[in-house]
Amino acid sequence: MLLDTETAILVDLKTDNFFDPKSQKTYETYIQKAVEYVSGFLTNKDFYSGETPSNLRLKETLLKADPDINLSIEEALTQIKELYLDHTIAFHHKNYVAHLNCPVLLPAIVGDMIASSVNTAIETWDQSTSATLIEQEMIRWVCSKMSLPNTSDGVFTSGGTQSNFMALLMARDDYAFKHYGLNIKENGWSDVVSKFRIFCSEKAHFSIKKNAALLGMGYNSVIPVETDDRMKMKPDALVQAVEKEKQLGNIPIAIIATAGTTDFGSFDPIDTIAKITNEYNLWFHVDGAYGGGYILTETHKNQLSGIEHADSITIDFHKTMFQPVCSSAFLIRDTKYFKYVSYYADYLNPLEHRNDECPNLIEKSIQTTRRFDALKLWFTLKMTGAKTIGSFLEKVHYLTLDLYQHIKDDHYFEIAHKPELSTLVFRYISQGIDNDSIHDTINLHIKNTLFKSGQASIASTKLKGKVYLKFTLLNPKSTIDDLLNIIQMIKTTGQNYTFNN
After folding, report:
1. pLDDT for residue 2 is more than 60
2. Residue 78 and residue 428: Cα distance in Å, rounded?
3. Got the DSSP string for 441-473?
4. Distance CA 323, CA 106 (A)
5. 263-281 residue pLDDT tens
6. What is the percent of the chain where pLDDT is above 70?
7. What kind of fold does domain 121-374 have according to CATH?
8. Mean pLDDT of the chain
9. d(CA 134, CA 147)
10. What is the crossing angle of helices 480-495 and 386-407, to 10°?
11. For residue 50, how many other CB atoms are within 10 A of its CB?
């Protein structure tokens, strides 16, 4: 059926919205106007407007996509300001200390804008050409920082969860093939795999259990290992856990060390764990999503000693290298292990056309279509430099220690442990009250009250069943006075708590 005249005219007019030579001026106008509105977002006073979820949902006309409305760029930006920019969370704000969301560097934003505009798909050479080379160079750079051998390789991923997924998949499939001749990729499940066991700290990221379940092994295939009072995995407890599972008839296949736990920023003793893993001939994965970036620092290089022995590594650039999400990588000791995720499709990357001169990165990824996320890291390294990034990380680490010193003797606070990275876990103690459940209630009230009011965003977690508050410091522009201001907000909110709340 042919388009009617009115529709055909409308379609013809709207083709000016495509990114191509004819729309160059329109593109420039759109980007300039968008920059004005994003710059306006930077002037927001608070990290959050404090608008309630119910009131945001009341902006129904803004939320809906109406096929009969064609807004101008100015109208669309005005609406998105009212719906989103006025109310979204500002990670750059000095009163945002909740999660692993870093402020982003301007060079990275430039790289992200170029990647989005050009819209390179990074999966095959004929879609990406030199973009492939840039990603490979960024991977070589980070592999060299980790002191991995020349056989090492890697691929950009959506984040730590995906990277950890790939590590568990390769550990499972490699052990199954080497020890039982099983090709899980070709033939699927085998009963022996149900006995496979993976060992990690009891403070390891939840994605380890989640991914084990997604891989069909189940939560119970992950054995949590006891930690010490600094939240580090105990090597003796690890050996005992491995031996116990062997006695139960189960099959240890992998050990995961965490370099910077999400809650406490703790580093497992990587070098010692590497030796244990080698003794048992198991896959050794290091989840460095948080702490891996600290390889660029002088303060934490020793904490990462032994990472060069890892079979695989997770690192998130969008946590500690000040990149916009997503920017993460999965690193592998030997590129041959990518055979466990590779697939050759006749229409995309046929095996007979495989050419090392024109590599297809899809062979290394569990994703097919994939953004050119390496470009923003390239811009950052070229314009900011690895040494400067390392100095930013050292600054937030020392800032965390400074805050710890300021409040460790304050009777209003109970601190979980001396910070090792850039997180501080503590709880407010209401004077004259000995009931932990009441303290839990008050601490959650503090967190929620400060968030809803737009004053400050802090996180909460649990330690030994008790509710604690958490600062995650990733902004090198923050000062100790900024943090002490939030501490005073916490005190004031806690002191003003009444049991009628």
Report:
1. no
2. 41
3. HHHHHHHHHHHHHTS-B-EEEEETTEEEEEEE-
4. 9
5. 999 999 999 999 999 999 9
6. 95
7. Aspartate Aminotransferase; domain 2 (3.40.640)
8. 94
9. 20
10. 40
11. 13
